[in-house]
Specification:
Layout lengths: L2 H10 L3 H11 L8 H15 L2 H10 L5 H23 L5 E3 L3 H10 L6 H20 L3 H7 L2 H22 L3 E4 L3 E4 L4 H18 L5 H19 L34 H25 L13 H18 L4 E3 L4 H5 L5 H11 L6 H4 L4 H15 L11 H17 L2 H18 L8 H17 L1
Antiparallel strand pairs: 1-4, 2-3
């Protein structure tokens, strides 16, 4: 046993009064766990999800939000959201700005629709407000039943493909072409660095290393500088310092009133829809991983409180200067480690805090280093594709449109809109109006408005 391990174990086994208080407060023993297990589970989840500290600012930087400001916002909302999950919902779940939501924010709202990032943050805020209302009044069942499951799974898969496309594009692996629209990029330092990083990250994931994506980002960053020099290109990594005070320049830059335009309602709805169903899917998936995470009715434990935390975290994220926060499916790493209570989320929250002062160090990470992580996140999000009812063409066709149109139109919103509209049209034209729930009529109408105003 090395000295570091010995110190860690010593820290975990000291202060019995403090540990017994944590045990009682979070009902650790009652849930079949221990304080030591909960702490280790929190570390496992943090390692699995900490890539967001670098990847989220990199994505938001494309929208015009300064990297350091986006990093500070990412850390603060991750701390506050996970802390709320610990004390209010008492669940072992990480809350942080989500992949998919940041892609929607940057590449659809800002770069695609031309919104300023301040107005786009306003859309994030209002989607969080509506989400909070839905969570507080416990109307999730009616909303969930209105949207066909195949379409929900398809949207997750489509966002995954979109994120993968963005990663490949950022790496220069896919470039524009007048003849074929897109094509393979030239073999240069960027492409070689990306490919090495991608393969390494895939190996780390396959070998089930904790923090596989973070290891991939670190390795790609280390390779980037010498590769740039070797190939005679511009150095991809530049040292600017180790630590600095947090950058809160994006705080309260949200344009709440500017987002209240009829033309922006579909964007707000798509954000709401994506976050709402991602949260539900995450809670349900994690509850299946351990019986202690279910209530007496077999539903995810403290579901209403967990949804409320997710909703308010999304709403607060906008004034802080980042895209919507959401629950992370990477929380499964901690559950697999034996984590069962809110103590896991408490540990996660405080592990984020030191990174608030490390923006110069983390700004070392070039976009080429986050590209492999984007590709792997896209792979993870493709998992629900097997749940789409491909043998039912009235379900498969709208799902297929949603999946394929997101990357091809470079718009998450357009993919969702065509999926909703085609679903309603197919049901109408085949005489199955009874299968269209009222909420689905509303979503299709909002989608149509968005298409008409976007052209």
């Amino acid at each position: 046993m090395n000295e570091t391990t010995a110190r860690a174990n010593e820290a975990l086994n000291t202060s019995p009064d403090r540990l017994s208080f944590l045990d009682r407060f979070f009902n650790v023993s009652k849930r079949g766990s221990s304080v030591k297990t909960e702490i280790l589970a929190g570390l496992a989840t943090f390692l699995a999800g900490m890539y967001i500290i670098v990847v989220n600012p990199a994505v938001l930087n494309d929208a015009g939000i300064p990297f350091s400001a986006a990093l500070s916002a990412t850390v603060v909302i991750s701390f506050l959201g996970s802390l709320a999950m610990a004390f209010y919902a008492r669940n072992p779940i990480l809350v942080a700005p989500g992949m998919g939501m940041n892609a929607l924010f940057t590449y659809t709202l800002v770069l695609g629709a031309g919104l300023s990032w301040e107005v786009a943050l306003g859309c994030v805020f209002w989607s969080g407000v509506i989400f909070a209302v839905l969570a507080l009044f416990n109307v999730r069942k009616a909303v969930i039943e209105a949207i066909p499951s195949s379409l929900r799974y398809a949207i997750t898969c489509g966002i995954g493909l979109f994120i993968t496309f963005v990663g490949l594009q950022n790496a220069g692996f896919i470039v524009g072409s007048d003849a074929t629209i897109v094509t393979l990029g030239n073999m240069d330092a960027h492409l070689a660095t990306f490919f090495l990083g991608l393969i390494a990250t895939a190996v780390f994931v396959i070998l089930r290393f904790n923090g596989a994506l973070v290891m991939g980002i670190a390795l790609t960053t280390l390779v980037a500088a010498p590769m740039g020099r070797l190939w005679g290109e511009e150095v991809m990594v530049a040292w600017t310092g180790l630590a600095a005070w947090p950058d809160f320049s994006a705080v309260m830059k949200v344009d709440i009133l500017g987002a209240l335009k009829v033309a922006y309602l579909p964007f707000i709805f798509v954000m709401l829809f994506t976050n709402f169903f991602d949260a539900m899917s995450c809670f349900m998936a994690l509850s299946e991983a351990a019986p202690e995470l279910k209530d007496e009715d077999g539903n995810p434990r403290n579901l209403k409180r967990s949804m409320t935390v997710d909703a308010f975290s999304s709403m607060i994220a906008a004034p802080l200067g980042t895209s919507a926060a959401q629950t992370f499916v990477e929380s499964g790493a901690g559950v697999a480690q034996g984590g069962r209570t809110g103590l896991v989320a408490l540990v996660i929250a405080f592990l984020f805090l030191p990174f608030l002062f490390l923006s110069p160090l983390l700004s070392l990470v070039p976009s080429i280093a986050t590209a492999p992580a984007l590709v792997m996140v896209g792979l993870f999000m493709m998992a629900p594709i097997s749940k789409v009812e491909w043998d039912r063409f009235d379900q498969a066709f709208p799902a297929f449109l949603a999946i394929i149109l997101m990357p091809l139109t470079y718009s998450i919103t357009l993919g969702i809109a065509f999926g909703f509209i085609s679903f309603v049209l197919i049901k109408v034209l085949t005489g199955r109006l009874e299968e269209i729930k009222p909420a689905m009529w509303i979503t299709a109408a909002l989608s149509l408005v968005m298409l008409l105003t976007a052209q």
